[in-house]
Amino acid sequence: MADVVISYAHEERDKAQHLAEVLKKFGFVVWWDRNLYAGEDFSAKIEQKIRQSTAVIVMWSVNSVKSRWVLGEASLADELDKLITVKVDECNLPINYRNLHAPEIFKSQQELENLLDLLHRKRVGAGEASSTSDQFEASKREALNLTMSGDFWKDYWKVTSAGLKHPFSFSRNNELSRSFYQKHKKVLWIVFVILIILAALMDQSGY
After folding, report:
1. Which H, E and C letters describe 148-188, residue by residue?
2. Is position 143 within any domain?
3. In the predicted model, what is the mean pLDDT of residues 55-72?
4. What's the domain range around 188?
5. pLDDT 10s digits, 65-90
């Protein structure tokens, strides 16, 4: 069963994938409609996943605020008290959701932290949190410090949202990705080395 379901407009598919990957790094089980298969009843499957989840993240954008699918999913999630809203670009929220806090996760690391806090509260409310608030804060801070220092998050989002699957997809003709690498290459290489070490340890353990 997924902790989190992501609802988004199809124009923001790359952003939804990026958000799913980030949340997985923080230990959340994520479901989004990329996991649908041909022949399935899409609307029934999405409703089932929303009902089974702990939280539903609706990604508001200039496109999703006009999507009847996203509005319908947001309505069901709100009815079930599972709704969490975020903004992935500058947009005016639907009038009935403007009273909800919507972290603007395209802007800063702090906004990502706000989203993680909202998700943790949903877990606690559902009785699914396995750690105390202090432990959660410690683990969140440790993970953020390892992967996102300074304005790393803002730049990372900018690169991935520009159409690159991740900032390692560098191209000599892509000024944005080259700029990101030059600015954050120390952090990127540290993460790369950590991944190699983890892969070696898993190989030795037989995983």
Report:
1. CCCCHHHHHHHHHHCCCCCCCCCCCCCHHHHHHHHHHHHHH
2. no
3. 95
4. 149-207
5. 999 999 999 999 999 999 999 999 99
